[in-house]
């Protein structure tokens, strides 16, 4: 998960997000963690879980 969080930070700094960014996962427990949820919220990323 550390790499995913680092990638999200890098993308937010180095790429312009035109409208919104959606992170889709397969309901892995790591993607429901408070840290991951808060980080997504901070960068304006919408989470999607199937």
Care to describe what's here?
- The chain is α+β, with helices and mostly antiparallel strands.
- Helices cover 46% and strands 20% of the residues.
- The protein has one domain.
- It has a two-stranded parallel sheet.
- Helix 2 (34-43) links the parallel strand 1 and strand 2 (45-49).
- The protein starts with a helix and ends with a strand.
Secondary-structure map:
Elements: H1 2-14, E1 21-25, H2 34-43, E2 45-49
Helix pairs in contact: 1-2
Note the main attributes of this structure:
50 residues, two-stranded parallel ribbon, alpha+beta, 46% helix, globular
Summarize the structure.
This protein is α+β, with helices and mostly antiparallel strands and 50 residues long. The chain is built from two helices and two strands; from the N terminus they run H-E-H-E. It has a two-stranded parallel sheet.
């Amino acid at each position: 998960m550390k790499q995913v969080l680092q990638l999200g930070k890098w993308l937010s700094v180095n790429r312009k997000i035109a409208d919104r960014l959606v992170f889709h996962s397969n309901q892995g427990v790591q993607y429901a963690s408070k840290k991951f949820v808060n980080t997504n919220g901070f960068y304006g990323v919408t989470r999607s879980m199937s």
